[in-house]
Design a protein that fits this description.
It is built from twelve helices and 13 strands. With 297 residues, the chain is an alpha/beta fold. It has two domains: 128 residues, Rossmann fold (3-Layer(aba) Sandwich), CATH 3.40.50; 142 residues, Response regulator (Rossmann fold). The strands form two sheets. The chain has a seven-stranded mixed β-sheet, with helices on both faces. A six-stranded parallel β-sheet has the order 2-1-3-4-5-11, with helices on both faces. Helix 2 packs across helix 10. The longest helix has 17 residues. The protein is elongated.
């Protein structure tokens, strides 16, 4: 009887499939190009064996069951939905990618780090100064529950660059559209953040139309909004973000504690300039900017 329990434990260990060295489980919310590009960048840096789960239909319980079965050394979460379903796991390091405003999702993320879809405000202001050298006052509409932390960072960055932020807190889409009118004559540009209270299908056309009518150029975070009528967009470079996450994964697989690896903003962006809108607003765009940007003519 004394030998029974040790033998049982030994048998369990022998029958349990060991995790492959450096094996990674990738959980991807959607099979869309930006997420695929991010994974491509990740693979370019991190050469470990990858098992992949894709699809929004995967339930939290199914994903957790896969984690327990495959016993990966690290999990890569691509997309917000994947991170939400994985954050209950506390005993496997998790690196996230292509997640907007992750600070609003992670209250206790001791085993979680990653690369957000936010671009550092300092970098954005630097690009903005190059495109619009005379800009001084920038308007921001934001929901404090969603992007308040980022606006706080932006205040500091703007001050260092001699810019002033005029912010309006909103808590609904209706408030966002109404607040836009209050910026008329007070700002040189409107900066739309990836804040779903402010920017959504119900508001975006109205915001862009109002910007044209009031001669307020709009800076945004996605080229699809530049195509709709924003002057410029600064969008995350998905491949480069993937490479950043790959570098983090290598550090963790190399033995570094995930708790000591700080989450990061995306370090690279893709600039899009809408020259049609620039002409309507009477804004000249420097030829050097055009040379290095995606241009809508």
């Amino acid at each position: 009887m004394k030998l029974f329990f040790p033998l049982m434990i030994l048998t369990f260990l022998l029958l349990s499939p060991p995790a492959a060295p450096g094996e990674i489980l990738v959980v991807q919310s959607l099979p869309i190009k930006p997420y695929n590009d991010a994974l491509q960048g990740f693979r370019a840096v991190c050469k470990s064996k990858i098992n992949k789960l894709v699809g929004p239909e995967l339930s939290e319980s199914e994903i957790i069951a896969n984690v327990r079965k495959k016993r990966p050394e690290l999990i890569l979460a691509i997309g917000m939905d994947s991170l939400l379903k994985l954050k209950v796991i506390k005993d496997v390091p998790i690196v996230y990618l292509m997640v907007l405003n992750p600070k609003t999702l992670l209250r206790d993320g001791g085993n979680i780090t990653g690369v957000s879809m936010n671009i550092a405000p300092e970098k954005q202001f630097s690009i903005l100064r190059e495109v619009l050298p005379h800009i001084r006052k920038i308007g921001i509409l934001f929901d404090p529950d969603k992007t308040g932390f980022y606006v706080g960072r932006a205040y500091n960055a703007a001050s260092l660059m001699g810019m002033e932020l005029l912010t309006k807190k909103v808590h609904s889409s209706r408030e966002a559209v109404a607040a836009m009118d209050g910026l008329k004559g007070k700002v040189d540009a409107l900066w739309l953040l990836p804040d779903t209270t402010v920017v959504n299908p119900a508001t975006i056309d109205l915001l862009l139309l109002s910007s044209i009518e009031n001669k307020i150029p709009v800076i945004t975070f996605s080229d699809k909004y530049a195509e709709k009528g924003a002057l410029i967009s600064m969008e995350v470079d998905a491949v480069e973000s993937g490479k950043q996450a790959g570098e983090m994964a290598l550090r963790i697989l190399g033995g570094e504690d995930v708790k000591g690896i700080m989450d990061e903003d995306s370090r690279d962006s893709v600039l899009t300039v809408n020259l049609i809108v620039a002409k309507k607003l009477g804004i000249p765009i420097n030829a050097n900017v055009i040379k290095h940007a995606r241009v809508i003519r």
